[in-house]
Amino acid sequence: MALLDIASKKVLFYAQSPMAHSAEMLPGGKIAVALSTHSKGNSLELYDSRKNAQYLFKDSLYSGHGVVWNERLQRLFALGFDELRLYRLADGNSAKPVLVLEKAGNCPAKGA
After folding, report:
1. What share of the chain is helix, strand, coil (3-state, %, to 5)?
2. At 26, which CATH number?
């Protein structure tokens, strides 16, 4: 996974995130990534864009496919194979930020 400056073609951030399907910028330069089916995937990872290749937080998420930050709600939506989750970013400016799971629900169709 990489964050690129399109104009300069400079790599701003990189990490080895097997089967990364979606990434989203969060406040404070954090990056949330949904990883799909892989022995080191099936998860939601949180990175600091100023620290390459080192995740700060990880939660299991089977067949992670999507992450979207909602600015108005200040919440992250994460989509897995058959589940939609809502997270809050806690301690975002600290060395140990975490994503706190607030709600989870089943999707009407698996893998859709």
Report:
1. 5, 55, 45
2. 2.40.128
Q: What is the pTM of this model?
A: 0.90
Q: What is the mean pLDDT of residues 28-38?
A: 95
Range of the domain at 96: 2-106
| Interacting residues of 59 by C-beta distance below 8 A, sequence separation 6+ | 43, 44, 99, 101
Cα dihedral 5, 9, 11, 16 sign: positive
Residues 6 or more apart from 4 whose CB is under 8 A from it? 10, 11, 12
Query: What secondary structure letter does DSSP report for 72?
Result: T
Residues paired with 46 in a beta bridge: 32, 57
